[in-house]
Amino acid sequence: MRFIKNKVLLSLASVVGILVIAYFCTPYYVQKALIHLYPDIDDLHIFNRNIVAAPDSVRLWVHATDYNTYTLTPQEDSLLSRLETVSFLVIQHDSIVYEEYRGGWNDTLTSNLFSGTKSIVSLLTGIAIGEGKIKSIDDRVGDYLPAYREGRKGEVTIRNLLTMSAGLNWDESYSSLFSVTTQGYYGNNLYELAINLEVIDEPGKQFSYRSGETQVLAFVVEAATGKTLSEYATEKLWAPLQAERDAYWLLDRKEGDEKAFCCFHTTARDAARFGRLLLHNGDWYGTQVVPLDYMQEATTPAYYLKDEWGKDSLDYYGFQIWQYKRVNPYFRGMLGQYIMAIPEKDAIFVRLGHKRADTYVRDVPQDLIDYYNLAANILDNRK
Asked: How confident is the model at residue 174 (pLDDT cuts 50, 70, 90)?
């Protein structure tokens, strides 16, 4: 019996040893993914980060006279609970009408906006164009990044990157351990990853959602401005928007590059500032933070492209900014991070949480439609 027990223990030890060896033989990003598994909104502590500092001059949101007087129906309450909402915020006429936090969250905690970050990179691109740092959205990427001057990469323009039509070989897979998206999120050399992408589809023809194209765009902005994304965002967005709290931009390594396609951390109240920019075409209380002509094009679908199915004109995506009903521009993150402008009601809503619906109505996640309807119901029932 002792012999059998020792043999079993030896076999287990061998298996463990093989697994340990295999673990250390895998790439760095795979090791990180195995430790941390699937991304979540509270990943701030597991990555290096830069601070996007709040300015000395802060503009706080005010409460509406009927602040939080709306009572959720059981169905609405279930909607927020089912997908583990942590923040739901509705603002109208620059006043907070409804604000709720769940799951231990509050108005001081930051959430990863995930792909909502792409829209921030778009805003920074527009600002760089307005300053003349980038001459035109139709400039070749190779004018700013030498690695994009040769072969088919030399065809790629900034417009192609903005509209996700550059045709780069980025596999948008969030569940695969070895995908380039996993490498981008958990890896430690985003620049090498981005400059080594290749063109596999003709640029400027069809929209295809690829996070790597935002990362390349970010390196264009940095090359054009001579600043990191965090520095440029601090100066050109967070300061003029009079943000209430510091935000954070996650990096691929210590003193490394910002994860431009995924990883801006902020509070719900400060996220709403982006909503106001969408609502007012880049204006912040009389200051044109993002050029008007850029904002108007950025929030207009790129109809000149084919949609992701290759059948119809693209009617739901502009310059890294989504469109709902063709009139509501919004930011969108993979776990249901939504910042939407509702121009017809002079309103904004922000939803942050841990999960997003698996079902879609064409290009729109079902839960986005539900949150929009909830926000509209709150606004329509104001006293």
From this structure: low
